[in-house]
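Changelog entry

Holo records now carry the ligand SMILES as an explicit input line rather than a separate metadata file. Below, a converted record for NAP, shown in the new format.
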Amino acid sequence: MIRVVILGSGNVAQHLYTGFLDQKHAKVIQCYNRKRLLFHPAQEENSITDDIGSLKEADIYILAVSDNAITPLSAQLPFKNKLVVHTSGSVPMKALCNLNKRGVFYPLQTFSRDKNIDFDSVPICIEAEEEKDVHLLKDLATPLSSKIYEISSDQRNILHVSAVFVNNFTNHLFSIGNDICKEHNIPFEILYPLIQETAQKVIQMNPDQAQTGPAIRKDTKTIERHLNILSDPLQKEIYQTLTKAIQSKYGKKL
Amino acid sequence: MIRVVILGSGNVAQHLYTGFLDQKHAKVIQCYNRKRLLFHPAQEENSITDDIGSLKEADIYILAVSDNAITPLSAQLPFKNKLVVHTSGSVPMKALCNLNKRGVFYPLQTFSRDKNIDFDSVPICIEAEEEKDVHLLKDLATPLSSKIYEISSDQRNILHVSAVFVNNFTNHLFSIGNDICKEHNIPFEILYPLIQETAQKVIQMNPDQAQTGPAIRKDTKTIERHLNILSDPLQKEIYQTLTKAIQSKYGKKL
Ligand SMILES: NC(=O)c1ccc[n+]([C@@H]2O[C@H](COP(=O)([O-])OP(=O)(O)OC[C@H]3O[C@@H](n4cnc5c(N)ncnc54)[C@H](OP(=O)(O)O)[C@@H]3O)[C@@H](O)[C@H]2O)c1
Ligand SMILES: NC(=O)c1ccc[n+]([C@@H]2O[C@H](COP(=O)([O-])OP(=O)(O)OC[C@H]3O[C@@H](n4cnc5c(N)ncnc54)[C@H](OP(=O)(O)O)[C@@H]3O)[C@@H](O)[C@H]2O)c1
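Structure line, unchanged by the conversion:
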């Protein structure tokens, strides 16, 4: 059985804790966080600590803390030569203090406090300095998820910037759609099926083939009418920038 | 039984034809298109025409043709005082020739030739000049979809610009994610679960609450690293514009 210590009490720490709860192959033997927060009613009081000095002996220490806390916290750990991993998409593995064996256990998903995640479909990107630690991380990930990828720090960086486009920026487009509907007293939920289908399509066809709309059609009249509807200058700018990008990308093919 | 004639042979015409195929309450008695295209093997040859002069007597004529063909085609119809509707999100109802009774039957979804759609979840936005035609369109839509909305031309315009953000522009962000991954030999499919979850979240929480990422965190270091990774100037511009918009929208709350 793989003994795990989770450090941090944010979204990722909580979801990881819950993910490991039903597993036989691994056990979270201790949690460290500054507020001594419990993740689950069944969690034993003495398995939580706010004292970095009293961390228990374990096989893997998972630092699920804010990106900028990874380096300082890893340097505070009171032991050497243990496997210490972080969960960040953008921090290099080598940002961890080199007194321990370093690795990454990056769940490529968007976690929120109040929304459960089916871990089985969460891609887990792993990296470690030593081959046997790669195996240990794979062993840890296998019963949790059916999608495990060995990914270098450089590749993880690329994935992270792509994730910003398909998640953070996409969500902002949803928030603009929501604002426009609200401003005109139209229920935003009318657009839910379209949003779901847009996301479904990407699995079945290349997004270049799925591209439709006034921009790719060079439908100048509609584009102008849309720009007149938008009252917010930033919404206008996003509309223009994305329209220009779509026309530039597919211009040659039209 | 409601007798329907469908004009046009594009994505919407084909999906509508298929949607009505299993219905008892309505029957597509004829299809008009310039290429005499068949939509289905069971379709009878003599129910297809390319001659606008020989349209059959029906209760509803659906013009599922390109936006800019709606006005001229509606003016060519060889009859008067019949209910004629178009299927466009952005064309006003009054763009139809006023010799007939006018209406709109707008399925708010993204249709592609090779992808089936479950019509039951497609919101149908209807509009008509006369109350009894609104009822007829509702009768036509009811067995097809569980989401029917009476929407004015002005509201439809608003929905359409929102749809451009949540569908066309979102799809372009997916295509950028795909390009970035391809450029660096990383399988884009690693991002599919994140894309699905992003779209799922919007149903369960307000997109403003779901916003995460370096922009809202004002994580300047990560933003800079990402901009350095992007080689395409248009990708850079989109990254900067959306980052600025997110920071401006949530700036006060941070
Ligand atoms: N959220 C996601 O969707 C997601 C997805 C994949 C990966 N990640 C990565 O996972 C890591 C954690 O993200 P998160 O979303 O869980 O963050 P979060 O919800 O903001 O929580 C951050 C946690 O870090 C702790 N922390 C911050 N500074 C610390 C320090 N100096 N010493 C000890 N603990 C400290 C915080 O503790 P206090 O409460 O005591 O301040 C808190 O428990 C990050 O590297 C992030 O990039 C996040
Ligand atoms: N695609 C979508 O996702 C979607 C969703 C909701 C609503 N709509 C709306 O539905 C309508 C049709 O869209 P679509 O995607 O089905 O278009 P499409 O696939 O591009 O097909 C356009 C059709 O219009 C016909 N057409 C063009 N000019 C014509 C004319 N002067 N006379 C007769 N037929 C003419 C074309 O016939 P030929 O093949 O003979 O040229 C073709 O059958 C548009 O108003 C669109 O805005 C589309």
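Spot-checked after migration. Residues A 8-13, 33-35, 64-67, 69, 72-73, 86-89, 106-107, 110-111; B 212 surround NAP (ligand 1) (CB under 6 Å). Chain A has a mean pLDDT of 96.
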